[in-house]
Specification:
- The structure holds 2 protein chains of 2 kinds.
- Helix content of chain A is 29%, strand content 24%.
- In chain A, helix 10 links the parallel strand 16 and strand 17.
- In chain A, helix 1 crosses helix 2 and helix 13 packs antiparallel against helix 14.
- Chain A starts with a helix and ends in a 10-residue tail after the last strand.
- The N terminus and C terminus of chain A are likely disordered.
- Chain B has 3 domains: 297 residues, PAS domain (Beta-Lactamase), CATH 3.30.450.20; 101 residues; 157 residues, Heat Shock Protein 90, CATH 3.30.565.
- Chain B contains 12 helices and 20 strands.
- In chain B, the strands form 4 sheets. In chain B, strands 1, 2, 3, 4, 5, 6 and 7 form a 7-stranded antiparallel sheet that branches.
- In chain B, a hairpin with a 4-residue loop joins strand 1 and strand 2.
- Chain B is rod-shaped and about 200 Å long.
- The N terminus of chain B is likely disordered.
- Classes of the chains: A alpha+beta, B alpha+beta.
- Chains A and B meet through helix 1, helix 2, helix 6, helix 7 and helix 10 of A and helix 2, helix 3, helix 4 and strand 11 of B.
Chain lengths: 496, 581
């Protein structure tokens, strides 16, 4: 019988084994890995691991969005269904003719620097932010005035639903893009880490978590690996490959939610081949979205039939959609174009699309762009580019992409039908009018697609169970970060 | 006491039955448990080893299969005249088809990149270190990639006209292999893990222990790392969890696949069966005890019946018999008991008959002895009185003789009547000294006729007791008569009175032949006498009278020296005081 056998069955062996275990445990070499953050008894820090996408380009849009969502707040917060809910705006009213919008700000709110939130502070912010947020639709705005200490009136040349949706603009202190009214405020940056600390005077109460550390990695896989090492409390995004390994873990919770972001290949209509609407329709018909979701996304997504989020209240499954009906591309020139790829984690996705397009004789070359991506897009220096682009929750987002004068319309897409549909949405006074406009928009896109729409993305976030995370099904858990607390603090009262 | 014995027998019988059942049962149970344990352990080890072996083979096939895929791909790429974009397309198609390859890159003979599945710059290079060979496919030793996770690359040398023309290199996605490892499960809590030859953890099937892979955990201290096959160990891990581990080598990689399962789960079935075995043994024991009690009661019942009958016989109920059924040994015993009881009855009847005959003889002899002398005296005196020549003095003498003998006969008849129907005692205050003096006066002449001095010694003052003068006179007479008859001529008979505390004591002593010690205890019984003749009723009547007067009588005697009877009665003054208080 071996030494281990004896140890297993004799009492002296058990004692010896236990003693050895105690000694080994006490040995510094056997010291347990420290949790990523401090113990719950001290200040609590949540470390969020991010995988960088645009390599070498610093923080991703996702990180910036996350930090903004914690530091900055919006006048109106739109849910995934596109319905608005007052945030810094306690309420808003639209005049009968739709040309005056009265906004009442929430009382007793102050910025991180202590400045009270007043109409006088917000009006210049809105004046500055709204053109970017609304794009050409801002032309409808006639004026923005403070009509009281906490009352703002926006006058319009004509009714505009896009103004209301534009009120999701983040409110920040003038001159400082990171000073807002949110539950956390930007503290400092150190190397690859961003640190935010709890807003002590947050009007809904100080968060339970004292600080949030954003830690960036070369890839989502690297972030996951570091979470396995105990250096990260939360994965901002669980990679598709890692999901099957993270989900069964008993010390980690995985939260899934559908995002109003769509994977798409945006086409540049300057390219002679891509200017052909029929070719663009052929491209859309060549893509087997279900197969892509299953193989490239491991089922973590939803086939996309267009730019309208299926989560949007105005979306109807009966809307015209792109269907998988591959047919050999018939073009007068050799069907070849180059697609820019910015995120290495999208490699499998774009390779799959490339493979499917090859099946109809289209040669979609791939170019991985590490630097100057934004400039190339602005200049229109591309045939196509692959994006995981925001297309919701409001119709204002696709408006910025697909309106002929939209801010993000870098592919020079122009469709009278699409513009007309946007006008219909903008001018709608009722839900029915709005829904009719959305349907018209969807039809116009299907008839004249500006991109190859692939799939709506589904994101998985993972949090160690040492944090209690109040989660609502289908919603991003970051929205409730203020209410997270260390798991051992269940007994303490809410600071609210 | 008898009940305790019965219970004891019953309990012992049940115990014997129980032991008779339990000892083999315990033996069988111990053997069963031992067999169960050893059998289960061997079975579990064999099962887990089978899982480990199958898992190792699965991993080996996983790796070699992908090496084969790479070799097949290499054959497509070499000597086919494909241009770069075609090669790229093929590589990308393979990567999409086989997720196990994170990247596939083609190098020329100068190790420059020709084509790659990567959209960006390739990450792999031709491995320079000593590889493991899978049928012309080289596999690099494990290394840590940019994400600090273990990885490995395959490389297939390409040939053109028997000359090296390049390399096809593929980065193996070991996380995909994790899925295979995750699929190797035993029970609910048994997981597989894979370690490199140096102990580096490559994969772990336990979702909570995958972190160890990312932490570059080294398990070279694991007892199965480096252990010769077939290997298994039972040990406690760092969390004091007892584990059963089996290992299988993955050749030619040199990796070790270990399947670990908590003992509590591995032997759960055996422990459950063991528990049921204990319960079954306990239940069997209880049943056997109950059966033993029931059958024991039925078996022992005849013994109890015999015991009760024996007790009845011992108590004098010679009519007790047992009811006998069946033909076993206990029935024979019952029949023997009944026969014995019948014989006892016969013997008792014989004894009684013999006793009656002896008694009758003794009574006849006594009557003859006691009556012959007076009757003879009466006859002689009567005959002499009938003579004409008899002078007055002689006539008077004969008349007195007749009166005396008639009185003697009357006393004899009184004794007989007292035995048949005792005369009631009538108590009055009487002076013992006076009664003794009166009796002495009566008996002294008879002493003188036998040459014996009869004397009296009186205590001072009156000695009063509550007595029956006539009854006590009979007692004194019996004692004095016996003393005179037991004393040879020249001897002395003395009667003395005394005060002994609160009692009055009368002693009658003689210097006669004495009574043998063995007969002393029975001399006060009816029909017991030391004399050759007589009914032997005197002392029995005397004792009865004394006790009726609340007195006591005792005897002390020594053969050849004489006998002394001592009587004690409560003094009357003491009795009066007691009555007054």
């Amino acid at each position: 019988m071996s030494r281990f056998d004896k140890a297993a069955i004799s009492s002296s062996g058990i004692v010896a084994t236990l003693l050895a275990a105690v000694l080994l445990t006490a040995h510094p070499a056997c010291e347990q890995k420290r949790p990523a953050s401090d113990a719950p008894s001290g200040p609590t820090t949540l470390t969020i691991g991010f995988g960088l996408t645009s390599a070498g380009q610093g923080l991703t849009t996702g990180i910036l969005e996350a930090m903004r969502s914690l530091a900055l707040e919006r006048l109106i917060l739109f849910g995934a269904n596109g319905r608005g809910q007052g945030r810094l705006a306690e309420r808003w009213t639209v005049s009968e003719d739709g040309r005056r919008v009265q906004i009442s700000l929430r009382q007793n709110v102050q910025f991180h620097d202590g400045t009270p939130l007043t109409a006088a502070v917000v009006v210049p912010v809105l004046t500055k932010e709204l053109p970017g947020v609304m794009g050409p639709a801002f032309e409808d705005v006639e004026g923005i005035q403070a009509v009281g200490s906490h009352e703002i009136e926006v006058t319009l040349k004509r009714r505009s639903m896009f103004l209301i949706e534009g009120l999701e603009a983040t409110i920040r202190q003038s001159g400082n893009v990171t000073v807002g009214t949110g539950p956390f405020q930007v503290d400092r940056q150190a190397g690859s880490e961003e640190l935010m600390r709890a807003n002590e005077s947050y009007y809904l109460g100080k968060p339970y978590i004292d600080s949030v550390r954003f830690k960036s990695y070369e890839s989502t896989r690297a972030a996951w690996a570091d979470m396995l090492r105990g250096h990260v409390d939360m994965l901002y995004e669980v990679g598709i490959d890692a999901l099957d390994f993270v989900r069964p873990s008993t010390n980690t919770n995985v939260f899934m939610f559908d995002r109003p972001y769509t994977y798409m290949v945006v086409l540049n209509l300057r390219h002679p081949l891509l200017a052909d609407a029929q070719f663009r329709r052929d491209l859309n018909a060549a893509v087997d979205r279900d197969a892509i979701v299953q193989t490239a996304l491991n089922g973590q997504g939803q086939p996309s039939g267009g730019p309208v989020s299926p989560l949007h209240w105005a979306y109807e499954p009966s809307f015209p959609n792109f269907r998988y009906a591959p047919r050999q591309a018939t073009t007068s020139i050799k069907p070849r174009f180059t697609c820019l790829v910015f995120d290495p984690s999208h490699e499998r996705l774009v390779l799959t699309i490339q493979q499917q397009l090859q099946a109809i004789g289209v040669d979609m070359q791939l170019e991985f762009v590490t630097e100057g991506a934004g400039d190339r897009l602005q200049r229109g220096d591309f045939d196509a580019y692959f994006a995981d682009a925001v297309s919701g929750p409001t119709m204002l987002r696709p408006y910025l992409f697909w309106h002929s004068r939209g801010n993000n319309n870098w592919g020079r897409y122009a469709s009278a039908a699409v513009d007309a549909a946007f006008d219909q949405i903008r001018a709608s006074a009722t839900d029915d009018q709005y829904k009719a406009g959305v349907a018209a928009f969807q039809q116009a896109i299907v008839d004249d697609p500006p991109a190859i729409f692939i799939a709506w993305s589904r994101r998985a976030r993972a949090v160690l169970k040492r944090f209690d995370v109040p989660a609502e099904p289908g919603r991003d858990i970051l929205g409730s970060l203020r209410s997270w607390r260390p798991a051992s603090d269940k007994g303490i009262d809410s600071p609210n | 006491m008898a009940g305790w014995r019965i219970s004891g027998i019953r309990g012992q019988f049940a115990l014997i039955l129980a032991l008779a059942a339990v000892v083999p049962l315990i033996g069988y149970g111990l053997v069963s448990i031992f067999s169960l344990r050893s059998g289960t352990r061997e079975s579990v080890i064999a099962g887990n080893r089978g899982s480990a072996t199958r898992g190792a083979e699965e991993i080996r096939r996983y790796v070699s299969g992908h090496a084969e895929i790479l070799r097949a791909l290499a054959s497509q790429l070499q000597n086919t005249g494909l241009v770069q974009w075609q090669q790229t397309t093929i590589l990308r198609n393979y990567v999409l088809q086989f997720r196990e390859f994170r990247e596939l890159t083609l190098f020329d003979e100068h190790r420059r990149v020709v084509a790659s599945s990567r959209v960006g710059a390739p990450r792999v290079s031709v491995p320079a270190d000593t590889p493991i060979m899978f049928d012309r496919v080289a596999m690099s030793p494990l290394r840590v990639d940019d994400d600090l996770l273990p990885t490995s690359v395959f490389a297939v040398p390409l040939m053109r006209l028997n000359q090296p023309s390049g390399w096809l290199v593929g980065e193996l996605n070991l996380e995909e292999m994790w899925r295979v490892v995750d699929g190797i499960r035993v029970g609910q809590r048994g997981f597989a893990l894979i370690a490199a030859p140096d102990g580096t953890l490559i994969a772990h099937g336990d979702p909570d222990k995958k972190a160890l892979v990312a932490q570059a955990d080294n398990i070279s201290r694991h007892p199965l790392i480096g252990a010769p096959e077939p290997a298994w160990r039972q040990f406690f891990d760092d969390n004091h969890l007892e584990l059963l581990a089996v290992a299988a080598r993955i050749e030619p990689l040199g990796w070790t696949l270990i399947v670990e399962q908590p003992i509590s789960e591995a032997y759960a079935n055996a422990r459950r069966l063991q528990g049921w075995l204990y319960i079954a043994a306990g239940a069997a024991l209880m049943v056997m005890v109950a059966v033993g009690l029931v059958f024991g009661r039925r078996f022992i019942a005849p013994i109890f019946t015999l015991q009760k009958a024996t007790q009845g016989i011992a108590a004098g109920d010679l009519e007790t018999r047992v009811h006998v059924r069946g033909g076993n040994e206990l029935a024979d015993l019952g029949r023997a008991f009944n026969t014995m009881a019948d014989r006892l009855v016969e013997l008792q009847e014989n004894v009684k008959r013999q006793e009656r005959q002896a008694m009758f003889g003794r009574i006849a002899a006594g009557l003859f002895h006691d009556l012959s002398h007076p009757i003879q005296n009466l006859g002689n005196s009567a005959r002499l009185l009938a003579r004409e020549d008899l002078d007055a003095e002689s006539r008077e003498t004969f008349q007195r003789t007749i009166e005396r003998e008639v009185a003697a006969l009357k006393r004899f008849m009184d004794d007989l009547r007292n035995i048949a129907r005792p005369k009631p005692i009538e108590r009055f205050a009487m002076d013992v000294n006076a009664a003794v003096a009166e009796m002495l006066e009566s008996m002294r002449p008879e002493g003188e006729r036998n040459g014996i001095v009869v004397e009296a010694h009186y205590a001072d003052g009156p000695l009063t007791i509550d007595g029956d003068r006539f009854a006590l006179g009979r007692v004194f007479r019996n004692l004095l008569t016996n003393a005179i008859q037991a004393t040879a001529a020249g001897g002395r008979v003395a009667i003395a009175t005394a005060r002994a505390g609160d009692q009055v004591q009368i002693t009658v002593a003689d210097t006669g032949s004495g009574i043998p010690a063995d007969r002393l205890p029975k001399i006060f019984d009816d029909f017991v006498t030391t004399k050759r003749r007589g009914l032997g009723l005197g002392l029995a009547i005397s004792k009865r009278i004394v006790e009726q007067l609340d007195g006591t009588i005792s005897v002390a005697s020594e053969v050849g020296r004489g006998t002394t009877f001592t009587m004690r009665f409560p003094a009357r003054d003491v009795q009066s005081q007691a009555a007054a208080s």
